[in-house]
Amino acid sequence: MVTKMAIEVLHYPRLDTILNVEKIIRTAMNPLSKNEIDRRLTKKVMRPTLNVILDYLVESGKIAMLKEGIIWIYKDEISPKLRAKLRKGVTVM
Prior knowledge:
About 50% of the residues lie in helices and about 5% in strands. It has about 90 residues and is mainly alpha-helical. It has a two-stranded antiparallel sheet with strand order 1-2.
């Protein structure tokens, strides 16, 4: 099975870029849009590269993409029951 990311990726992000995006989302007080994340980054990132980072963070269970925006949901001690509810309630933008 070929994933969506494997077909469309023109440029893979560097680790420091991924960590910067994680930090921006983790420290945000409110849900963020992709445009707001882009504005808060210290260096410019191409939109397809940002999408790859966000897809990775969704798949790893660190963020949720809701209608209101992107939020940080990862917590080490989160219960499996709550994690399942978060996954079920998440809608991809």
